[in-house]
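Sorry to interrupt, but I need a hand with the structure work. I would like you to pick a protein and set down its sequence and fold. Please put the record directly below this note.
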Amino acid sequence: MKDETKFSVKDLNLFYGNFQALKNINMELYKGQITAFIGPSGCGKSTFLKTINRMNDLVEGVKITGNITMDGVDIYKDMDAITLRTRVGMVFQQPNPFPMSIYDNVAYGPRCQGIKDKKQLDEIVISALEQAAIYEEVKDRLKDSALALSGGQQQRLCIARAIAMQPKVILLDEPTSALDPIATSKIEDLILELKEKYTIIIVTHNMQQAARISDFTGFFLLGNLIEYKETKKLFKNPDDDRTKGYINGIFG
């Protein structure tokens, strides 16, 4: 079965002032797949992730050329950023729960969208927490502060918060880099489960993580997309010597 394109990226360049952070990126990101971006720090992978839901719009002095389409619609020309971010949720490197209850964290987005009915909100909150594999751990303390949760629980709560908006895509920017190995393993298991419902794009500094959970991997270096293909093929038989060098630990 041919993979269905979710995002098509054509000739994408991004500048912070005079500095070019992304250089002529071209790629297709596929629906219902987990795509990982790897590469050394400062290579452009997180910057590129943020172009997919226009988080870079919030940074002063950013200039972007080229285009990105989602389901055939240009996300910069033909879609407003609020609509886009509803469809494309984002989870950051450091867990960032709001200083409010566990329940209110998850209900926050739906309430902002105008959902006020308590029964409906309850259903959304429970469903999101269940999908994020944390409901059983917090079901008796939904009114407690989210800040009392462990780091791994906070990150799963942030994933639940993204899910509550019923996105089509979830972006994860190094979601386990602040977590211990046990919490990391739980998040990885969760990502594999979420693939059933969502298109997932993850930036990771952990090559083993990319190899374990992703279907496709892109290797970034100095703002360039050096190589992009099925994960197994990229790790087993990279085409570019720079990819080979990075995977084999020669640099990075």
In short: Residues 5-247 form a domain with the Rossmann fold fold (CATH 3.40.50.300).
